[in-house]
Each structure stands twice: as C-alpha cells, then as structure tokens.
C-alpha cells in the first residue's frame, strides 16, 4: 500500500522480490486487498483505486494494457460478417478494431469523429453521429446524438466500458452512459470490449445490466471473471 501511494501501480514481480515470498502468496494477498476495496487488481500487479467519477484521458488509456486490447479486438473482428451494419463506440480499445475491418459491404456507424475519418480513408461506408463532442473521449454525446441513434438498428455493436461488476456495466459520464444504453437497445448483439483491469470495477453511472451484452476480455484467473460467466456470455482471449 505504501508503494501504491507513491507510484499508483505495483507489479507482481516487484512484490515477490521485496517480500521474498511465492507468487501465489502475493496473488492471494492482492486478491484479499482488492476484496476489501483497498486496491484494484490488474494483469501483472495492482493499481490504486480511482474515484467513481474519475476518467482517464485518451492518452492515458492508449498506453495501458495494449497487448490485451489487441487480442480482444482480434476476437471482436471475427464476430463481424460481410454486409453487417455495426456500431463502433468512441474509445482507445475500439479504435484498434478499425485496422481489422476487411469485410465486404460493411456499414459502420460511430460517435467518434476520429474513428469516422479513419474508416473513410479505408473506403468503408461510414455514418458519423453528430452532437456535442466531449474532448476527453472524442465522443459525440447529448440528446441530438441519442435522437439519431434511436432511429437506427445494428447487427452488432462494439462498445468500451470503464467498469464491469457482477450486476452492471458502468461508466463515469451520464451522457456517455445514455449513448451506450441506446446502442445496446438497438443492436441485435452488443459486445463489450473490456480488458481484465475493468472487471470488478465500478464507475459512477450504470449503463445497463451485465446480461445485456457479451463480454470479450483477456484470460484471467480472477474470481470476478468466474462469477461473471454465470451471469452473461463471456469470450476469453
């Protein structure tokens, strides 16, 4: 806890070395501290808990858990078929999916101006949702955006999420939560692309119930993931 207070993140390897104990013992202790809400378990270590409404910048998100995110979007791309109409959420994980879109006759709807520009460069049929653009996440939000989304239907949707607990999908911002909820309601299947660090986390605003989506995440031996599988479909990579 002292190390976390200084540096916000501590690795499993570091703890094993300074405590001169086994990796399994350190894992158990970290899991216990996480269950007491004293820290947040992530792949390879632990990080300091974040306030419910705290939201990282695009840059902060883009450099975290990159390998896991790449594996997640590889699996997500396999879910897309020729001729699909899909929604791709604003966000750093969903951005990695754009480079893998090779299906024929695809139509992509997004609430990210950045995502839309990249897809136009790839000659993909693209519809960008308008609205108030939130600088920290590059997402179009607000009632104008919701009105447009409510008129559309999607074969599949791919969304990011800040927190996944045993009951709800959550995010720090109420307006982004409303966008995600509208998308989930209008998609035949929604895939939440969340790396293991988001599992067991809770943010300020509830988006929808856990069972409303299929979760694509990286493999972990966490109790949270095992319990999540009892509630909804989980695809591990």
TrEMBL record:
It comes from the Bacteria. Coiled coil: none annotated. Keywords: Transcription, Transcription regulation. SUPFAM superfamilies: NagB/RpiA/CoA transferase-like, Winged helix' DNA-binding domain. GO terms for molecular function: DNA-binding transcription factor activity. Residues 1-48 form the HTH deoR-type domain. PANTHER family: HTH-TYPE TRANSCRIPTIONAL REGULATOR SRLR-RELATED (PTHR30363), TRANSCRIPTIONAL REGULATOR, DEOR FAMILY (PTHR30363:SF56). This is DeoR/GlpR transcriptional regulator.
